[in-house]
Specification:
Layout lengths: L1 E19 L5 E21 L3 E5 L11 H10 L7 E7 L10 H16 L6 H11 L11 E6 L3 E4 L7 E7 L5 H6 L12 H9 L3 H6 L2 E2 L2 H7 L2 H11 L4 E4 L6 E5 L2 H10 L5 E7 L10 H6 L2
Helix pairs in contact: 1-2
């Protein structure tokens, strides 16, 4: 038996840091949005064991990979299950703030739940996802969601009408732990408000939304990586309604309300030490998940 799943990237339209928690994590609020930029995960059942293959050198293919850990988490406490080969074809860069690894893990949970006939519901899978990583539950939820806590407490939101997003991913990863470790409360902006973003999102007011983008981690990242500011300025010059660092970086995205402007920006963006990807936002899980997966977890 074999199954193929596309796993999307995400951007953070807003990210507010509320404080440090007793468990060492940071309390936050964030507005997640999926975009149509995908990795591909092929899962095939074998008699026993877990095998992971990846087409990108440097990506671990062992128990340190979230995909492997997702498979092992599903096997925990269950006997008599067959094994699986998980073949990962990567397009989403690692350490880029796009949630590629988290999306891969969510895809593994969904695919193996079906192929191993575990019959776990979406809420049950969410509980497992929370233990794997803060962003993993989002990829099981909906294309647009409010994340709270570490990002794992989710409330689905109605997506805006599709808009264009130009991703600029520098050829260097940024460590999330390093960014949070250098976070200075004096650099965060107290007036930033997720509810304002939600208002513009509900009205599909893309220029209004783009004008209010914020990320409390961005000043910390720019302090260590001034190239991020250069990319933001170039995106704004290209006709973007707004530009922002996604998550802890290193990807910067520009939001466009006009597809023609977005395509022109892609064509004319300066060559540099980065990769470009023009995407559209997603409105439904059915845009990338097979019907057999969606119906199985209802």
């Amino acid at each position: 038996m074999k199954l193929e799943i596309k796993t999307p990237a995400k951007i953070n339209l807003g990210l507010k840091i509320l404080g440090k928690r007793d468990d060492g994590y940071h309390e936050l609020e964030t507005l997640f949005q999926m975009v149509d930029f995908y990795d591909h995960l092929e899962i095939e059942i074998i008699p026993s064991g877990i095998q992971l293959e990846c087409d990108v050198p440097g990506i671990p293919a062992d128990s340190t990979n979230l995909v492997w850990r997702a498979a092992e988490a599903l096997r925990e406490g269950r006997t008599g299950l067959p094994g699986a080969v998980l073949r990962l074809k990567k397009k989403i860069p690692s350490g880029a703030g796009l949630g590629g690894g988290s999306g891969n893990a969510a895809g593994a949970l969904l695919g193996l739940n079906k192929l191993w006939d575990l019959r776990l519901t979406r809420p049950q899978l969410q509980k497992i996802a929370e233990k794997l990583g803060s962003d993993v539950p989002f990829f099981l939820e909906s294309p647009c969601a409010l994340g709270q806590g570490r990002g794992e407490r989710l409330a689905s939101l109605q997506s805006a009408e599709k808009f264009d997003v130009l991703l600029v991913s520098p050829h260097f990863p940024i460590s999330t732990a390093e960014v949070y470790g250098r976070l200075k409360w004096g650099l965060t902006k107290g007036e930033n408000d997720i509810s304002i973003l939600r208002k513009f999102l509900s009205k599909s007011d893309v220029p209004g939304l783009a004008n209010c983008l914020f990320n409390d981690l961005e000043p910390v990242v720019i302090e260590g990586y001034p190239q991020i500011q250069d990319i933001k300025e170039e995106l704004n010059r290209s006709g973007a309604c707004g530009a922002l660092l996604s998550g802890s970086g290193s990807t910067v995205f520009g939001v466009y309300s006009d597809s023609e402007k977005a395509e022109k920006a892609l064509a004319n963006f300066p060559k540099g030490n980065w990769d470009l990807k023009l995407c559209k936002t997603l409105k439904s899980l059915s845009e990338f998940l097979p019907d057999e997966i969606l119906s199985y977890t209802d």
